[in-house]
Amino acid sequence: MAFIEFYREKLQHNYQFLQEVFEENEIDWSIVTKILCGHPEYLQEVINLGIKEVCDARISNLETIKKLNPDINTVYIKPPSKSIIRDVVKYADLSFNTEFETIQWLSDEAQKQNKEHKVAIMIELGDLREGVMGEDLIDFYAKVFQLPNIKIVGLGANLNCLHGIMPSEDKLIQLSLYKQLIETKFNQHMPVVSGGTSVVIPLLFKKQVPKGINHFRVGEMLFFGNNLFTGDIVEGMHDDVFKLKAQIIEITEKPKVPIGMMEENPSGEMYEINEEDYGKTSKRAIIDVGLLDVAQEGFLIPEDPKVEIAGASSDMLVLDVNEVGDEYHVGDYVSFKLKYMGALRVFNSEYVDKKII
Q: Which of 200, 193, 171 is nearest to 96 (CA)?
């Protein structure tokens, strides 16, 4: 059976690296744990780092965190759907919101639970995912400040999550100015401007993050150490906190070109034949994971540079191992590094074991 390994010391190293960066810049930060898909053992490893606040996009994951440590501050980081309002108030200390009607539901539920629920308003800065438009902010805040049992603590933004719009110093200044505008207009202090995610950290290295941005939400750089501007690994960080290991179930010399009438495969793909491959063979290995478990295209990287991914079906992944000689045999494990989306799919698979190293 395939399994994923979680390297505790590498995670601790990356955490300490980021902690020093944020302390130097006097910025608070939270860890985004959605990639861990609610696995209690892995969430406990995150809590053990010493972080005070955890963010997630699944309310069941925040429930697990509260069970592991009720003192951790929990943040629900996407606009809540109506069906989970009760649990958001129960398990999330803070939620990110963009719809007045949703905040009304949160207000009603907070009254029922005799709680104060904190809210941050997400602002649209150009990536066109969630966010209130800038020209609507005054009217929006005028209404939400009136709701009982709701405490508006600030505002935030996301970039690079949908259309790949990159953050810039100008966009972050714009977010800071929105905060000043709201505070001045309504004479209300809002302590949190959550404008930072993993993609913004390279700007922090360059001292291009304005002082008004005082909160970051970090997942990808913590777990993968990658600079999303350059695609490189940040010097001093680990890119292999996770590794996937899958077992070879067949290894055979086969023709490089499929034989017979060709149509689309079950994934809707049409295989393109390289005419130079006619008459050639290659050693191919099949491992015991497939598209049900992994997103292989660009997100799964064989640690052995001589191994190439040839294709995948629902529950099997085919590798070209022609360049490795007799190094691999049936029953051997092949090791892979993971990129963010590749790891997300693996963690969400019930068919891949999870281990801590």
A: 193
Q: Are 27 and 266 in contact (CB under 8 A)?
A: no
Claim to verify: residue 135 and residue 179 sit in the same structural domain: yes
In the chain, which residue ranges form alpha helices assigned H by DSSP?
8-24, 40-48, 59-68, 85-91, 100-112, 137-144, 169-186, 201-205, 220-224, 340-347
CATH number at residue 39: 3.20.20.10
Let me know if residue 69 belongs to a domain.
yes
Q: Do residues 119 and 97 touch, judged by C-beta distance below 8 A?
A: yes
Residues 59 and 190 occupy one common structural domain: yes
For 289, phi then psi, to 5°, come to: -135, 160
Range of the domain at 119: 8-224
- Give the closest residue to 33 by CA, choosing from 16, 52, 14, 56: 56
- Burial (0-12, 13-18, 19+ Cβ within 10 Å), 207: exposed
Q: Tell whether 210 and 325 lie within a shared domain.
A: no
User: pTM here?
Assistant: 0.93
Give pLDDT tens digits for 50-65: 999 999 999 999 999 9
Instruction: List residues with catalytic annotation.
Output: 34
Confidence band, pLDDT 50/70/90 cuts, at residue 266: low
Report yes or no: 29 and 217 within 8 Å, Cβ to Cβ. Answer: yes
pLDDT tens per residue, range 331-340: 999 999 999 9
Selection from 66, 68, 124 nearest residue 96 by Cα: 124
